[in-house]
Amino acid sequence: MPLSKSLPFIWRNNRESIMLKRKRKFFCLFMLPSFLGIAIFVLLPFMDVVKRSFTTAITGQFNGVKNYQTIFHNQAFRLAVGNTLKFTLVCIPLLVFIGFVIALFLSRIKSREMMKSIYLFPLAMPTATIVIVWKMIFYRQGFLNMILTKMGEWTHLWSEVHIDYLGSSAAFWVLVGSYIWKNTGYTVILWLAGLMGIPSELLEAARVDGAGRWQRIRYIVLPNLKGSLYTIVILSFLNSFKIYREAYLTTGAYPDKSIYLLQHLFNNWFTNLEFDKMAAAAVCTGGFLMAVILVLQALWDKNEI
Amino acid sequence: MQKVWKLFMKGFIFCFLLLLGLTVIMPVLLLMSGSLMDTWELKGYLSAVFTDGESFIGWRLIPEFPTFANYGKLLFETPQFFVLFWNSMKLVCGILAGQLFIAVPAAWAFAVYQVKGSRVLFALYVVLMLLPFQVTMLSSYLILNELLLLNTHKAIILPAVFSTFPVFLSYGGFRSIPPQLLEAARIDGAGELTIFLRLGLPLGKSGLLSAVVLGFLEYWNMMEQPMTFLEDKSLWPLSLYLPEITWAQAGHAFSASVITLIPAVFVFVLGQDYLEQGIIYSGLKE
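Output (structure tokens, whole complex):
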């Protein structure tokens, strides 16, 4: 009697372990091509780079942390890190905020589809096609100065404006502008998805309880959007590195000091075959980014519970 | 009264958004109008840009003497343009096809077979997805040099095939399939491969298509990789060629830009739903 009772148990237990084995087998099978490729093209060579970061460029002798010391004392590296940090710290909050305001407005109107397409469109425009337009707008005699001069004539507040936006420190703001122009679309989509995901009963209940519009935004909408915020910050961060395309195409490999980014530096080191510095900088940047991502993820996980 | 006010606010918001939207797509209008102008008209408008004088650039959104001469010249008299156009096409299609074979099964593994360690591996994939090109530039160069692939199209296609971004997007699509459905198929005796091909692919296709749409837009615009790994200019994609055109050939630049834009717009218009879906998937956390 006891035997027959325990039999199904053993049988089930056995079946579960078979299932688990099967699962593991198929996981590996489906995973294998991708993982192999990543190992060959990313992981193994990156280990080589880590090794190189501790050796000299030409002879390959071990020289400790000297490469790291060199880059941290390197003026260009400091400038590039500073500019890159400044760019991300200015752009991301700005983009997150602008995207939110537009999404909030869009969530109120009915004919949303066309507007969404319009804002998304810059995402589809290849950078190379846009460069000629940027030049027409931001050159010394371009559209922006023309409009500013017209406004000056009109209001009598300032005389003619002849700033070369791409060749002066204003270039930083041109980059900020083109980043916002390009990336607002997907931020709006993500915010909208978040906004639409808030149960309308929740908002209705708050309205019945007498909460005003701002109160509803502050106490119900915003706390419900934390997940979207995490995503938007991560994606904006990822895309902020792609601004190099605009920077490089409009101003070349050695632009104004205000927009000399890490990406320029890496590229120039590569051209000059300074692989030792490049290796050390790649390890530092990679490590820093990984730390940022993990911290953000940890923060987010804590908030979720 | 309140109703009128509400209607007014709505109209105001609509106009505001539309105006903002118009400035957003202004560059396209400039490109289109520029491509339809003849050399003399363009020169007239743009001469202010080259001279150091005080006069400003001029423009008309509707050209005074519209002409297709720029396009004609580009399409019938510039064979190099076709070479570059096909280079771009070859790179993009090669990458996307490769990604479908490599990344989609990996996404399926992550979505369906959760085993010990799969979460850690997934975290690694996320980090790899977020690393910018410059960080892995040297390592890519070293391996491509080792494999003797530098200065060939394979040097661009192969590393991109193993990008983890499409894994992430397809994963989003596969996660939306209810697991009970797969379990039911298993009980009915379907093999794992059959489940993947017959159930996974058709049901998770929104994830795959969004990976294709976002991938197309990304790789059509690719610059860093070809700039670093391709020396031979005849191998370049369009995205690197356009900026090389000088002001003196402005008409050529405008029409070439518009033609480069066409495939991207085509994919954008056809795949907009998947594009949005993809953006939302890219925001999904495990």
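The first helix of chain A runs from residue 2 to 52.
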